[in-house]
Fold this sequence. Notes:
By secondary structure, this protein is α/β, with parallel strands linked by helices. Helices cover 21% and strands 26% of the residues. The chain has 13 helices and 30 strands. Strands 1, 4, 5, 6, 17, 18 and 19 form a seven-stranded mixed beta sheet that branches. α9 packs across α13. The longest helix is centred in the middle third of the chain and has 18 residues, at 372-389. Residues 1-44 have low confidence and may be disordered.
Amino acid sequence: MSATPKKNRAARRILATAAGLATAGAMVAALPAGADDRGRPAAGHGRTVDVQLLSFNDLHGNLEPPAGSSGQVTRTHPDGTTTKIDAGGVEYLATHLREARKGNRYSVTAAAGDMIGGSPLLSGLFHDEPTVEALNKLKLDVSSVGNHEFDEGAKELARMQDGGCHPTAGCFEEGKTFRGAKFPYLAANVTHEKTGKPILDPYFVWERGGVKIGFIGVTLEGTANIVTAEGVKGLKFGDEVETINKYTKVLERKGVKSIVALIHEGGAPASSSYNYDCDSPGAGDGVSGPIVDIAKNLSPQVDALVTGHTHQAYVCTIPDPAGKPRMVTSAASFGKLYTDTTLTYDRRTKDIVRTSVESANYVVSRDVPKAADMTSLIQRWNTLAAPIANKPQGFISADINGRGSTAYEKPLGDLIADAQLAGLAPADKGGARIALMNPGGIRADLVYKASGSEGDGVVTYGEAFTVQPFTNMMNVVDLTGAQLIAALQQQVSGSNEASPKILQVSKGFTYTLDMTKTGAARIDVASVKLDGEPLDPAKTYRVAMNEFLAGGGDGFPALAQGRNKLVGASDLDLFNAYLSANSSAAAPIAPPAADRITVIK
């Protein structure tokens, strides 16, 4: 069975103070509980009832178990040693969630965005219809939108909600029309610029047996900066705190006093272990990042926060504006974890007893039986994808880590940048001399060990697609040396200072990154060189990058200043072409040395 320990309730419980509530036995008789959703009398007659909240985030269409380090979580043992645990896969996630629900009459399942987008080929090839179908089978009750829900624009997001065949690709299975999500997507802070109205429902009220819990869903305010401009055209993204506080008042007026915020924004825990206790004595500030300020300013009426976006695992308490501890959770990414939170609901006040909230993250281990309905779903879509997915593209001699690498310069990032440079260097293709790749666009590792029947070291189209799933069109633009240096400085300053976004660079482009300094000073300007020669601030260089970066995405306004744009092939096409041209079974590609950026720590 799972390698996860049993829940340590004491460690994750917000303890009652001396002035806390009396025990259930001393409480007054409950108000009439009504009937549950099946019309049966509600169980129990106590004043309080425990509601199970199961949650996860950032699935990104990972229906099959993620490969390599992208499919592992770290567990820390009492003696300080750590273990890597293989995790994830919707067949296992379904089994774990269904087992967790047993014996819990009041159970609701929620998600904090990025369920789709940046998906492996099995889902991405079919515009994420397979993932929405899987989420329906998982009995997901509600989800906020995330930034990746906008990868294909608001109209496609509406199709994910409402159903219907894809406007250009059509229906993927003969005689079947996509039925859409059975759960509501919430987008409280995403409004139409012209009307000011939310593009989807701002909140959802879950009700069972007279118990009501309101969910408000938002994505991060900065979504427009990390999605292609076309994907968010005509949309406005509002402040998370202002929006949630606004709809908290709306729910209160409707008599809903128990409220959970689903926020696609997150933080970084002090430890990468999923079982890190960030409230333990001596832990200090156990989590940092944008979610901390959000949590500290949200209305005290909000009882718990389910968060995401940073792909981190944490279960922490952060004080609300009244100084009262409030649970904030995140379940890493790719379906490797789920969070089980107990919310004690007071029937008289219709509110959550905050002193009784308890929570823990659990591993979606692969040592449990696979859910048969999910296996069938995966097999059905794999059959449709097989003619494309299994085509060999190239060969590698060992794992080439991308998403799973914690280094600023990632071996797979170097390989992708080299592929882009090779494809766009010819004069008739743009004449590029430098290629830049955003690290967030690298969605997986290239894993040597065969995941299917193609043989060790073979890179298939499906594996390449999983690494580069966005099919961004490549641009080649003119940038001055001064603008390139400004872009390098923007990696570690401004909006990127707290969480640097280090661009992956093509061969021949080198510089020193000094992380002992702060802000833009972290870039040693004198060290920036191209083919061994100092970059000339006054000279113009042809630079290749995807359309997302060329639009200034990820906090790089300097890159949006490019001129004389030439639009080339897609990033995926260039990547596959490079693999094919530069590798064979006898001469596979070795992991790049990742020696282009010298890092001083």
